[in-house]
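BUG: 3D viewer hangs when loading the predicted structure for this chain

Environment: internal workstation, default settings.
Expected: structure renders.
Actual: progress bar stalls at 90%.

Input used:
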Amino acid sequence: MALVDDLVTAVLLASAAFFVALAFGLLIRYRQLSQKITASSDLGRDLWQALEQRMKKQDERILDVMGRLEVIQSRVLAAPAPQPPASSPPVSTPAALPSPPQDVVTDVTPTVPPVQPHESQEESHTSQAPSNQVRFDETQLKVIGLLAENPKNTRQLTDAIGMSREHTARLMKALFEAGVVTRNDTTKPFVYQLTDEGRRHLPASPN
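Structure tokens produced before the viewer hung:
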């Protein structure tokens, strides 16, 4: 009987030792898997952040190029058309008259070339004077009028003019490069304020 009890005790001790070793092995395996998962998560997070930064830089470059194209287009549209040089009217010189005989007296009136009126000359000079003012479209003038009230950020301007965020960003970039507005880069979204140059483009108030 004592031999059976010893055998049962040995089996129980062996089983307990086996389960303890199995639990210890599973715990080590769990820690290894947790470290691999954490390393994979950090690597994926770094890759995603790097990709997001590249996408943001690419968007900024695209907006910069489109803004420059709009500024160049506005300057081309504002450039005056070349005027043909004013042609002066031909001045006719009186032809030499034959000398009359000494005993015959004739009344000869020399022909006088026509003189152009003074008003036409002034009109020609006025028509040739080019205009150096920059022209803005209706949306840009609306933005200038909104900023004349108080400074506004990009979100407020987008809601006011009813356009997309990208279109508003390109429009404000063109106005900023033209010196019409100033931009506060320390806030998100940017806050724009009208300059003295921009106030010159405000429509004149009716008397």
